[in-house]
């Protein structure tokens, strides 16, 4: 029995040294920092620049900007040119019963300029609606940016965590293989029973299955990383929480989320859009005043006419007032009022959701701190326990299964620590997102911040042109 315990103890000392070494590396941040490793801020900058979802949202916002010049067009004159020309065959019967025929080529050219002077304030309110839509879209874009950065943090930390899990499982499999080899030799020597061999073999197969699962998860996390960041992961450096940017209390977190989260601000602007749309609908019930100028020239070669050319010019003022349109404008006004009421209820809902999300993020962040501390203590205790089991096995007080179980507990403790450290980083960024501060400026990323107002000012007062500011 002493010889058996001594053999197991030799293996136990080897795995203890490797297990404690891996645990120490995990506690320092998943793994050692390799040369020229890609840090989390660099990955976030790449995602901010090239993520398809975020770029698509930016394109949507640029399209929303065009609502403003379209609304402003109501202040500007409308100019229409016209040209008509053709062939005309004429057959005239004269009083003396003679017939006169002619082939004519009449043509007319003209230009009409129409300027709206008053349309029930529809243009002014339409411009306000368009500007509120732009501001709501900017907040929606900022919210999508937060989501993309949080996805990038999650993808980055998942790669680190799964890579560490693979290394921990490989260490475990190495130990189990060595243990099985020693037990089989001792079985041949008659020192142990087949039960010991079966236990070691079962534990090895379990370790191989765990290693396979860890490798699968690692491959999936690498693919997700490439999707979110834009390139496959190479060597990644440890990720750190962003506690320095976080609020100091739960009340401060919920207050910031309630007031400044982009989803809340976007919903507030949606209320402004809906409220102003009521005025747009009511404008259809008011009179419209327009001024129209027209100039034309026509030519006609009909010999029976007294004139062969006509030049005309006119300036006409017109006022139209709706009397009854079948109830369309009234229905549209009532509809706009209901939509306004709905948008206010949605704003209340979004505020409550933001407050709840901030509370949840705060609690999860505090819990993640405790989980990391507890997992670190568990790894240290599991290492000490493995060392104690190994010593007791040397004295014949422990069996092979005791050492195997102690090793399994250490491996499980390391896996929980890896997960806790990953959750700790993600929780800090989640809380930063919940208060609406997960952006390039707050994080100080080395990338230009996308400023949607630049495109807005480029197109707002554009009177003509088909090309976008980007040249397309």
Explained architecture:
The chain has helices at 2-27, 40-50, 52-65, 67-72, 122-188, 194-229, 250-260, 262-282, 328-394, 400-434, 440-443, 452-459; strands at residues 78-85, 88-93, 99-104, 107-118, 288-299, 309-320. It is an alpha+beta fold and 472 residues long. It has one domain (2-459): Outer membrane efflux proteins (OEP), CATH 1.20.1600.10. Strands 1-4-5-6 form a 4-stranded antiparallel beta sheet, with no helix packed on it. It has a two-stranded antiparallel ribbon with strand order 2-3. Strand 2 (88-93) and strand 3 (99-104) form a beta hairpin. The longest helix is centred in the N-terminal third of the chain and has 67 residues, at 122-188. The chain is elongated. The termini are far apart. Residues 1-35 have low confidence and may be disordered.
List keywords for this structure.
472 residues; 4-stranded antiparallel β-sheet; elongated; disordered N terminus; two-stranded antiparallel sheet; Outer membrane efflux proteins (OEP); alpha+beta
Provide the CATH top-level class: Mainly Alpha
Question: Low-confidence runs (pLDDT<50, min 5 residues)?
Answer: 1-35
Along the chain, the helix and strand elements come as: HHHHEEEEHHHHEEHHHH
Strand content: 5-15%
Query: What number of domains?
Result: 1
Largest sheet: 4 strands, antiparallel
Enumerate how many helices there are, as a single number.
12
Using the alpha-carbon principal axes, give the shape.
Answer: elongated
How many E strands? Answer: 6
């Amino acid at each position: 029995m002493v010889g058996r315990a001594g053999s197991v103890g030799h293996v136990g000392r080897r795995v203890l040294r490797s297990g404690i070494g891996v645990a120490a590396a995990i506690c320092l941040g998943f793994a050692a920092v390799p040369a020229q490793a890609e840090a989390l801020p660099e990955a976030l900058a790449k995602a901010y620049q090239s993520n398809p979802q975020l770029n698509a949202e930016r394109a949507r916002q640029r399209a929303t900007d065009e609502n403003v010049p379209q609304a402003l067009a109501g202040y500007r004159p409308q100019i229409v040119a016209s040209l008509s020309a053709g062939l005309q065959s004429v057959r005239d019967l004269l009083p003396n019963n003679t017939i006169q025929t002619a082939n004519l080529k009449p043509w007319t050219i003209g230009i009409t300029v129409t300027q709206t002077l008053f349309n029930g304030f529809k243009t002014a309110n339409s411009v306000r609606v368009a500007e509120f839509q732009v501001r709501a879209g900017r907040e929606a874009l900022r919210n999508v940016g937060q989501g993309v950065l949080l996805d990038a943090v999650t993808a980055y930390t998942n790669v680190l965590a799964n890579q560490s899990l693979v290394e921990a499982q490989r260490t475990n499999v190495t130990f189990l293989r060595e243990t099985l080899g020693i037990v089989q030799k001792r079985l041949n020597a008659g020192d142990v029973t087949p039960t010991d061999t079966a236990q070691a073999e079962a534990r090895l197969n379990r370790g191989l299955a765990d290693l396979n699962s860890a490798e699968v998860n690692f491959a999936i996390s690498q693919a997700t990383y490439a999707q979110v960041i834009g390139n496959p992961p190479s060597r990644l450096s440890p990720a750190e929480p962003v506690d320095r940017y976080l609020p100091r209390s739960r009340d401060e977190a919920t207050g910031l989320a309630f007031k400044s989260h982009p989803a809340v601000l976007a919903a507030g602007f949606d209320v402004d859009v809906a409220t102003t749309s009521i005025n747009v609908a009511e404008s259809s019930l008011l009179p419209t005043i327009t001024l129209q100028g027209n100039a034309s020239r026509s030519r006609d070669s009909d010999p029976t006419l007294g004139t062969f050319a006509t030049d005309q010019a006119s300036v006409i003022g017109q006022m139209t007032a709706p009397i009854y349109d079948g109830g369309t404008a009234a229905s549209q006004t009532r509809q706009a009022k209901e939509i306004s009421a709905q948008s206010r209820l949605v704003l209340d809902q979004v505020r409550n959701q933001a407050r709840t999300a901030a509370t949840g993020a705060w609690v999860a962040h505090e819990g993640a701190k405790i989980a990391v501390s507890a997992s670190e203590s568990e790894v240290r205790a599991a290492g000490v326990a493995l060392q104690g089991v190994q010593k007791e096995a040397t004295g014949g007080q422990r069996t092979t299964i005791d050492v195997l179980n102690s090793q399994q507990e250490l491996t499980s403790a390391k896996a929980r620590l890896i997960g806790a450290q990953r959750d700790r980083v993600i929780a800090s960024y989640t809380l930063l997102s919940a208060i609406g501060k997960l952006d390039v400026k707050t994080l100080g990323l080395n990338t230009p911040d996308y400023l949607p107002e630049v495109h807005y000012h480029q197109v707002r007062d554009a009177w003509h042109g088909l090309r976008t500011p980007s040249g397309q």
